[in-house]
Amino acid sequence: MFSDQKKYFEIGRDMAGRMRYGAWQIKEIVDLTLQPMETKKEQFLMNFDTDVEEVEVEAVLTYFVSGKKKDVVYSVKENLAFDID
Amino acid sequence: MRKTRLLLLLFFGAALIWRPISLQAMDTEVDTIDELVSMFDESTCMDCHEEIHNQWAQSWHAQSVVSSLGSIHNFIEIGIKKEWETEVTKGHLLKCLDCHAPVINFASEKLAVEIADMIVTATKEKDTPAGEAAKKELAKLKVGCLSCHNLKALTVAPGWNGPREEGMIYGPHGEDAGDAHETLESIDMTRAAFCMQCHGIYTAADGETIQCNTLSGSYQNAYVAKGGSKTCQECHMDKGHYFPGGRDLDTVKQGIGFDVQINPYRHLPGQIKDVKDEKQWVPSAVVTVFIENRAGHRIPDG
User: CB–CB of A50 and B276 under 8 A?
Assistant: First the structure.
């Protein structure tokens, strides 16, 4: 019905084709990760159809430790009820 | 003439006797992995430190070479051979293994090149008998007890600390271990700078900077700069020598806060397209998420 996501990550290659995450190349560049001592605020606006009476909203924080392994760190669910006029 | 020769011989003899023990060890280079491992035999550590050993055995330090075969293989095959167009040397390999297996410093040039070949074989021929044999041999190389408690114990400030003593155990408290071994206090081991020797920008002997991860860069430039003062050890030794990090869910949870606020509302009619009845108020919600980075470095990194 509705899905959105925000990703925080190390970026890949720069415009000269040099990797920005490789061990033997240069890494300084725009940092898209979560910074220490900071709180990020993300807001998601979702609209449903006019005949929807009940919705389950789930917010999930997933941590990808590698391309192969991911962990669900937090998951928050809430049921919303809407009265139809 | 005879007198001069005698004096020179005496001087040369004295120079050998007074050389620091650590430098003698640095000159010792062996030709097999088994000899390398036996130079820093850690098999007796667990006799007294069983709990610590068991924690370490579950850690990534205990598999610091075999868990990084892909990256080290890429450095050898893509970095050194393809991009730099040169042959692998011990100096090259040390750029990885001075941290991943510090005992490599005592490998001969021949052994270092053999180890590089093993890394390539273990990666390229994974799941074959040759690949498995190479991996089994490489598994003997790791960040063991003496990697931190001797080899790297003083190297944060080698001038101030002086050379390490061969056979000495360095610890944060210098507690006496009775007859088992001598212990010297190394305050450096309690500091972030100790971990940052490897978990950050590593400068190789030829000046090359190796940036496997930038945790220490983020720690210094973002965390400490904003007033943070915890050390790496305060969080990453919560489970002792298991050194939990991004692969440990408890540690990830400790480092990230997650506050979700879900607010349902009804959107103005006629504003949202493609709904069944554009004259109706539209069921809607605003989900606000606050993600707090409580770690001492950026997330993700590693």
Answer: yes
Contacts of A29 in chain B (CB under 8 A): none
Q: What pLDDT digit, counting tens, does each position of B105-147 carry? A: 999 999 999 999 999 999 999 999 999 999 999 999 999 999 9
Task: Report the domain count for chain B.
Answer: 2
In this structure, the number of other CB atoms found within 10 A of the CB of residue B289 comes to 19
pTM of the predicted protein model? 0.83
Among B162, B182, B213, the domain boundary falls at B213
Cβ density class B125-136: b for 16+ within 10 Å, e for less:
eeeeeebeebbe
Mutant choice from B250, B289, B292 vs A, greatest count of A C-beta within 10 A: B289
Q: Are residues B82 and B198 in the same domain?
A: yes
Q: What digits encode the pLDDT tens for the residues B277-289? A: 999 999 999 999 9
A57 to chain B: closest CA residue? B262
Structural domain of residue B121, as residue ranges? Answer: 3-213
Q: How many CB pairs under 8 A join A and B?
A: 161
CA distances from A1 to A49, A51, A55, B130 (A): 9, 13, 9, 51
Residues B118 and B260 in one domain: no
Q: Are residues B204 and B126 in the same domain?
A: yes
Q: Smallest Cα–Cα separation from B180: which of B46, B54, B57?
A: B46
Are A36 and B290 a contacting pair at CB < 8 A?
no
Q: Which of B210, B286, B300 sits opposite A9 (nearest CB)?
A: B300
